[in-house]
Amino acid sequence: MSSKHSKLFLITGVSSGFGRAFAEAALAAGHRVVGTVRNADGKADFEVIAPERAKAVLLDVTDFDAIEPAVARIEAETGPIDVLINNAGYGHEGMLEESPLGEMRRQFDVNVFGAVAMIKAVLPFMRRRRAGHIINITSMGGFITMPGIAYYCGSKFALEGISEVLAKEVKGFGIDVTAVAPGSFRTDWAGRSMVRSGRSIADYDELFDPIRKAREEKSGNQAGDPHKAAAAILALVASENPPVHLLLGTDALNLVRGKLAAFSEEIAAWEDLTRSTDFG
């Protein structure tokens, strides 16, 4: 790939899962990638993939004060960031009544505040250049819900809404924003990456125990291929007119379409009451 078509990607969380798949695909396509990792082993492990074009920076996305200086250093030393992929995140599982509030705060710190802090750090540079693409990895859990992942869905609903507003705010500056919502993929999201709150209330056993068991059994056998997701991200980055929302996976497509149809029916069923609140 000629250098004029080569982009600089900044991807959070490149040690494993989607982040690693996205980074490897971008490097294989001739791009340069700066990836955030959380320790020295992760740094060495990442940079060996493409010593000239893969650079790792030690950064925890919840260390908010460190983000702006880190991004400024990348811009000064490595070059203009063309694409930010907010990938760092994790899943929290637990019934709302049983899950400590501190676990919700941690979930939002990583999945929402960390992503927004990254966006705020790159935006001044992208805005001045009148160019850039911000990609936020959300989830089908930013549209559809199921019992036992209230904190996770809450964080992804938040990131979907923030992405949509941001897209409207920066459209005039030549900056694209896309919220990418994957369905179930073979990453370690449901494995070692997931934080699970303890169980304490028997009333929820009948509803939740089968859900937790099914998720644990399905881990590693999900339909989604992370490498194909990475190819989709490269196609998204290359497109002239990228969407604000992109679903990845047939399961996400079917579940979100079902949710929208049910929502539309509910709106219609309650339309009279909805209309009843206007001044006459």
Walk me through this protein's architecture.
- With 280 residues, the chain is of the alpha/beta class.
- It has a single domain (8-276), classed as 3-Layer(aba) Sandwich (Rossmann fold), CATH 3.40.50.
- Helix content is 49%, strand content 15%.
- Helix 4 packs parallel to helix 5.
- The radius of gyration is 20 Å and the shape is globular.
Q: What's the helix and strand layout?
A:
Layout: E1 8-11, H1 17-28, E2 32-37, H2 40-47, E3 54-58, H3 64-77, E4 83-86, E5 92-93, H4 101-129, E6 132-137, H5 150-170, E7 175-182, E8 195-196, H6 205-218, H7 226-238, E9 245-248, H8 250-269, H9 271-275
Parallel strand pairs: 1-2, 1-4, 2-3, 4-6, 5-8, 6-7, 7-9
Helix pairs in contact: 1-7, 3-4, 4-5
In brief, what are we looking at here?
The chain has helices at residues 17-28, 40-47, 64-77, 101-129, 150-170, 205-218, 226-238, 250-269, 271-275; strands spanning 8-11, 32-37, 54-58, 83-86, 92-93, 132-137, 175-182, 195-196, 245-248. With 280 residues, the chain is of the alpha/beta class. The protein has a single domain (8-276), classed as 3-Layer(aba) Sandwich (Rossmann fold), CATH 3.40.50.720.
Question: How much is the average pLDDT?
Answer: 94
Indicate how many domains the architecture comprises.
1
Strand count, sense and barrel status of the largest sheet are: 7 strands, parallel
Rg, alpha carbons: 20 Å
Query: How much of the polypeptide forms β-strand, as a percent range?
Result: 5-15%
Shape: globular
The number of E-state strands comes to 9
Q: What is the CATH class?
A: Alpha Beta
CATH architecture: 3-Layer(aba) Sandwich
Any low-confidence stretches, pLDDT <50, length ≥5?
A: none
Helical coverage, percent range: 40-55%
Which strand order does the major sheet show?
3-2-1-4-6-7-9
Please identify which CATH superfamily we are dealing with.
Answer: NAD(P)-binding Rossmann-like Domain
Instruction: Give the termini distance in whole angstroms.
Output: 64 Å
Alpha plus pi helix count: 9
**Category by helix and strand content:** alpha/beta
